[in-house]
Amino acid sequence: MKRIAGALTAFVRFSECCAVAVAMGAFSHLSDGRIRGLWPSCRITCDSAGCDEDGRHSYDVRFSQKLRPSLHLVHSGRFLSMLKRTHTCGELRAEHASQTVTLCGWVNTYRDQGKGLIFIDLRDRDGLTQVVFNLEYVAGDVVTAGRGLRREDVIAVTGKVRTRAGDPNPKLPTGEIEVVGDQLEVLNKAETPPILPDEYEAEKIAEETRLKYRYIDLRRKRMQHILRTRHRVTKIARDYFDEHGFTEIETPFLIKTTPEGARDFIVPSRMYPGQWYALPQSPQLFKQILMVAGCERYMQIVRCFRDEDPRADRQAEFSQIDLEMSFVDRDDVMAMMGGFIQTLWKQVLGMDIGDIPAITYRDAMERYGIDRPDLRFGLEITDVSDHAAKTEFKVFTNALAKDTGVVKAIRVPGGAEKLTRKMTDGYSEWIKTFKAGGVPVVKYTDKGFEAGIAKFVSPIEKELVERLGLEVGDSVLFAADTYAIATKALGELRNKLARDLDLIDETQWKFVWVIDFPMFEFDEETQRWYSLHHPFTSPRPDQFDQLESDPGGCLSTGYDLVVNGSEIGGGSIRMHQPHVQQKVFDMLGLSKEEAKMKFGFLLDALKYGAPPHGGIAFGLDRLVMHLVGTDNIRDVIAFPKTQTGADLMIQAPGSVAPEQLEELHVQSVLPEEAKQLHEHVPEVVDRG
RNA sequence: GGGGCGGUAGCUCAAUUGGUUAGAGUCCCGGACUGUCGAUCCGGUGGUUGCGGGUUCGAGUCCCGUCCGCCUCGCCA
């Protein structure tokens, strides 16, 4: 046994600098304070751990084999001591000049100027700081280590701050200064990274690769900013609602499947063979029960699960800021929640958004063709069915002959010039996505209607000009179909037009409450009513009578909060009287027995003193998306899933051992074609 | 379940009508350089063209199947 003289406080390294990190990485702390490690050719054990006043550890080290000749001590610093960080890479300014500091972080870039000089841009979550090593003045091992630095190495550097000897870099907040490196510890040498957390390149890298190496992607300034912003949103939410008397209460994840709504994720029960838990689509019923339980004001930032296909702004696993209040009506909830959104925008963006206006569902559908209208631009939709009926245009007359047939129009100011034939042809094709037949178009010039369907609509020129407020140079786009199809198609077309014609002022925030939703929607296919919101939404107090007499016309207390055409929250006043709730279940075709089986606990709870109550849930992911300006929900989730529900980093989902299935009383029954797929999954996911 | 786009070096991309040894930038490796800052300059390593099959004298390119990623319709109370 060879004992290294004295307390070992040294780096152990090869003469090649790159071995340092390997040697250090080979050690590990033991719980009793000793460290032990393996080295390719020698076993190293360390004990007698000591701790000095600065809290640094030092160790006696014995090598069980003779040291390889190439291994030698080159530095009498402290082994594993880690230079202690004094500042972050974002905070140093000219006024720190002449201070000695220690920075820790990742090597963002290195610029080796040759024999004399090495520049390192050191990055931590706070920013970048230039470190310069003047090789003439630093110790030999620092020269060696410094020259070996590569991107994403983790290092600690001690040195003196000074205003830059060269030109300042106006691109960096720390660009006036640099740290003159004196001591350098390579805390962890990085292998050549597959991707770089580089703002110049990162946005171009395939998302697939970014998701696989998420821990590198998240090092980027932008991703750090997003994670930080998300934290601030949840903090502001907790603070705001705490100040308003809300209590944060957790609700269970292992619950029971519910009828209607999205597909559930289900979890087999080990204790109850053949029975299943479901993951919550939202804590809806629990928060209502909490109101019955006298909590009065509840909030929770909670994960929800819906097993449906994801979209750019949708994940199967997502987060809500969930809220419920007792003894309130619709306006109380909207005022409280509007206040939250105002606070949020003020604190995160420094913006005053003012009071949030409201629009009825009916208005929204009529004027914007969608229940989440984007109010940053005009292009409102107008019903022209009555005039269209007077034309001999078959597309119009055939549509109007249908049950709920309508003809609707959008006036595009200046469209005669801005909308090319190619564009409008494109719209006709594109709109088929929404089952509409096409987009008839006409230009309005000083000679009247021209091009497109001019000859058909010229007879009603006067009426259309008046109805649509047409001016010379405008175009009119039509949709003729059933109410549902024409409305939706034109609503989508309106949004597309705004994007294509660059009519959207991206600096604006147009918030709006959508209210007075219908209680129910009739589904032709299944010939039954469905809740537009959910089956616990109360009708408006003045609409109770319509519940049975005119279910289609009965309005609910529901409200959605919409910003810039995106739904960021929705809620309602709930039914707190069991007989009203029962009536709604009746309407939905839920038998007494079924209702009792699925929601018996709720109906019971309502019987034993339920206060009037209502609430809302905000989509946390979407709020953050707006606040950081992204249209990709995966950007605002630290570890998101792909569109097929896979986690490319951990490679989930994965198979389980047969014993696990057995224990859960579950058998896999794969369709023939899936068996092959199943076998392929591991390789496919790992293909890089 | 349907429609669209994409998959070539670690990364970002190119490759003519199907035709020589699949190129470039970057990363990485080696060298030069004392004020750089997306450093520069010189040289070098690096390829199962997602996977499987087919057509062909010859396939990155054409055909069939399949997988993966993104967008989207349906779906998402």
Q: What does this entry look like structurally?
A:
The model is unreliable at 1-80 and 676-688 (pLDDT under 50). Helix 5 packs antiparallel against helix 7 (330-349). The chain is globular and about 90 Å long. With 688 residues, the chain is an alpha+beta fold. 29% of the residues lie in helices and 26% in strands.
Overall strand count: 29
Helix percent reads 25-40%
Summing up helix and strand content along with how strands pair, one would put the structural category as alpha+beta
Strand content bin: 25-35%
Shape descriptor: globular
Terminal Cα span: 46 Å
The number of distinct helices, counting runs of at least 4 residues, comes to 21
Radius of gyration: 33 Å
Mean pLDDT: 85
Please give the largest β-sheet.
8 strands, mixed
Unreliable segments (pLDDT under 50, ≥5 consecutive)?
A: 1-80, 676-688
Strands of the widest sheet, in order across it, are: 13-16-17-29-28-27-24-18
What is the topology?
Layout: E1 2-3, E2 11-14, H1 19-25, E3 27-29, E4 35-39, E5 42-51, E6 57-63, E7 71-75, E8 100-112, E9 117-124, E10 127-134, H2 140-148, E11 154-163, E12 177-188, H3 207-212, H4 214-217, H5 221-243, E13 247-248, E14 266-268, E15 276-278, H6 284-292, E16 297-305, E17 317-326, H7 330-349, E18 358-360, H8 361-368, E19 381-383, H9 385-388, H10 394-401, E20 405-412, H11 415-418, H12 421-430, E21 441-445, E22 448-450, H13 454-457, H14 461-468, E23 475-482, H15 483-500, E24 511-515, E25 520-523, E26 528-531, H16 546-549, E27 559-563, E28 566-573, H17 578-587, H18 592-607, E29 613-619, H19 620-628, H20 658-663, H21 672-685
Helix pairs in contact: 5-7, 5-19, 17-18
This protein binds one RNA strand of 77 nucleotides through β8, β9, β10, α3 and α21.
